Amino acid sequence: MPPHASPIANVSSSPYAPKYTDSLSRLTNWSIIESTLREGEQFANAFFDTAKKIEIAKALDDFGVEYIELTSPAASEQSRLDCIAIANLGLKAKILTHVRCHMDDARIACETGVDGLDVVIGTSSYLREFSHGKDMERIIKDATEVINYVKSKGLEVRFSSEDSFRSDLVDLLNLYKAVDQLGVNRVGIADTVGCANPRQVYDLVKTLRSVLKPTTDIECHFHNDTGCATANAYAALEAGATHIDTSVLGIGERNGITPIGNLIARMFTVDPDYVASKYQLHKLRDLENLIADAVEIQVPFNNCITGYCAFTHKAGIHAKAILNNPATYEILKPEVFGMTRYVSIGHRLTGWNAVKNRAEQLGLALSDDDLKAITGKIKKLADIKNQSMEDVDGLLRNFHAYKVAGDHSAIEQLLVLPDEVIAAAPKAVAA
Ligand SMILES: CC(=O)SCCNC(=O)CCNC(=O)[C@H](O)C(C)(C)COP(=O)(O)OP(=O)(O)OC[C@H]1O[C@@H](n2cnc3c(N)ncnc32)[C@H](O)[C@@H]1OP(=O)(O)O
Ligand SMILES: O=C(O)CCC(=O)C(=O)O
Ligand SMILES: [Zn+2]
């Protein structure tokens, strides 16, 4: 095995793999703040009753997330009761609740039994003018009061600037320095409208890292409006962020945030053993199915790891190489996640090596010439419509039976397209 190779991943031979250790990087030392029960509740379809919230919290805890973030107890009486119920489950994960930078919210939240508060306030001019109406001086004043109060209760506190990437950098750094001096556990950066790209994220996190105490953690929250939520999370960790907000399947306000499964897939390629040591990877599919059912959506077909064709190989060139060595076209090993690989055969992009493999699975001894002839027949049929595995198996079995019987004319017959198939074919094919 090449240096750094892992028996659970196919990532070791990338010529672009990091060749030196970047002192800022937290790519191999990071935590998840799982926000399905906060950001996820902001998804248009989401309604979680208490029992469902508890089931989700337990499933997240089983999976191994470090933190579970809950909707503000100020949102409604039931939200408050649910916060208390989940804070009292005795889970391994730390329980946080997410509140406005306001003493009313902080007081209610501190009485719920959670481990910590994620405090947020918008800092962009859009939000200062059109949301809460406070200037930077007032934000720092309110932040100071809330943070001191939460700390006086002995709880963990994170302070975050909503819409960080449309906020003035000098304003942001002044605010973060002020809250850092107050002794927050973490500061947060939020790409609330999904406008940031990985390079901007890297720059902002790196700058922030340089002004904070080394012991202050950095949490990042990325919306996916322009498709960068997972890449931005990766860039943030490269630049020294310590915590990433996720939700299951990425559910959240609008089209949501970094999906936990995407983050796992991405980070697995960096340090598979580290990721496998923290999270119960084979439970990811059940976790996603739980949320998909709860909010009445399908797991997307192209979901990382668990999408229904995430480990399906189709084109003949791919199929041959995959059958020889799965590392050729797979960066992740399906079995690590409790998934299985599938080679699709019954289509016009198939190749004789894939057909040979299927014949071997069926225990049918056929020569290479036989298999090439059968492949030709599959392609002719598949030019009209894709063939099922049963169709392909039937063809292989019949060919084999005629061969054993020495019935050459039956084989010839088998290899031509029947008249009724030609007649039923679309005109261009029949001609
Ligand atoms: C980007 C994000 O996702 S942040 C998290 C979003 N989460 C939520 O909104 C939680 C669910 N929200 C709710 O249940 C309600 O909005 C509540 C309970 C928080 C507030 O409800 P209401 O008092 O009816 O106010 P409303 O929702 O209409 O407006 C928000 C109020 O919070 C203020 N506000 C907005 N953001 C903040 C903030 N970060 N810190 C302090 N105050 C804020 C606004 O100025 C406004 O105050 P106003 O009542 O003086 O106008
Ligand atoms: O609290 C935070 O950091 C993030 C809040 C949020 O959901 C957002 O800004 O999109
Ligand atoms: Zn958000």
Automatic annotation (TrEMBL):
Pathway: Amino-acid biosynthesis; L-lysine biosynthesis via AAA pathway; L-alpha-aminoadipate from 2-oxoglutarate: step 1/5. Keywords: Amino-acid biosynthesis, Lysine biosynthesis, Magnesium, Manganese, Metal-binding, Transferase. Coiled coil: none annotated. One of its GO terms (biological process) is lysine biosynthetic process via aminoadipic acid. Its cofactor is Mg(2+); Mn(2+). Its EC number is 2.3.3.14. Residues 30-285 form the Pyruvate carboxyltransferase domain. One of its GO terms (cellular component) is mitochondrion. PANTHER family: HOMOCITRATE SYNTHASE, CYTOSOLIC ISOZYME-RELATED, HOMOCITRATE SYNTHASE-RELATED. Belongs to the alpha-IPM synthase/homocitrate synthase family. Homocitrate synthase LYS20/LYS21 subfamily. This is homocitrate synthase. It comes from Linnemannia schmuckeri. The lineage of its organism: Eukaryota, Fungi, Fungi incertae sedis, Mucoromycota, Mortierellomycotina.
